[in-house]
Design goal:
- This protein is mainly alpha-helical.
- It has seven helices and three strands; from the N terminus they run H-H-H-E-H-H-E-E-H-H.
- A three-stranded antiparallel sheet has the order 1-3-2.
- Strand 2 and strand 3 form a beta hairpin.
- Helix 2 packs across helix 6.
- The longest helix has 26 residues.
- It is globular.
Length: 172
């Protein structure tokens, strides 16, 4: 039976692997290479917002997106201004609150995100060459649980009174 020391060693190894992976995936050069490969221009900071909007089943409010992303609403508003100028997102009136606006991905935004996603999948396919599919599937399951738990923990600590629900239909 594994003891706490074994578990701590495994957690330490996982931390090191995740740190390396985060570094590789978020480097400016990596982002520039992948966006060039997809034939698009988008800031790294905008990609997660676009993905959140793509996963939602309906338009989202700026405040909900900001809470989900754990940033200030003004940050999301600036991102949406840039993305709207590029015709990647659109703002529409909120049917329930005339003061609020809903944000949704446009067809152009979805197409751009699809191209980037395909470029990323191609790179991952190359990196995963020779790794058995069941291992990849298990890794996905474990990482999905880790992301969900980690995000829930940080959201509850950062926003203890108002832990946000995922934007409608989002699965992160």
């Amino acid at each position: 039976m594994p003891d706490a020391t074994d578990n701590q060693a495994a957690t330490s190894e996982l931390e090191a692997v995740l740190a390396s992976m985060a570094y590789l995936l978020t480097r400016s050069q990596t982002h520039e290479h992948q966006t060039a490969r997809a034939g698009i221009t988008a800031a790294r900071s905008d990609i997660y917002l676009l993905r959140a909007l793509a996963e939602a089943t309906e338009a989202s409010r700026v405040g909900d997106l900001a809470a989900w992303m754990m940033v200030e609403p003004s940050h999301v508003t600036r991102q949406i201004d840039r993305l709207q100028a590029q015709r990647l997102v659109e703002r529409t009136p909120d049917a329930l609150d005339r003061r609020a606006r809903q944000v949704a991905l446009t067809d152009e935004g979805q197409e751009m995100l699809n191209r980037l996603k395909q470029a990323n999948i191609t790179s991952l396919d190359n990196a995963l060459d020779g790794i058995p599919e069941p291992d990849v599937a298990t890794t996905v399951t474990v990482l999905r649980h880790l992301v969900e738990r980690y995000a829930r923990k940080w959201r509850s600590e950062l926003l203890p009174d108002t832990t946000p629900a995922a934007p409608e239909g989002a699965d992160r």
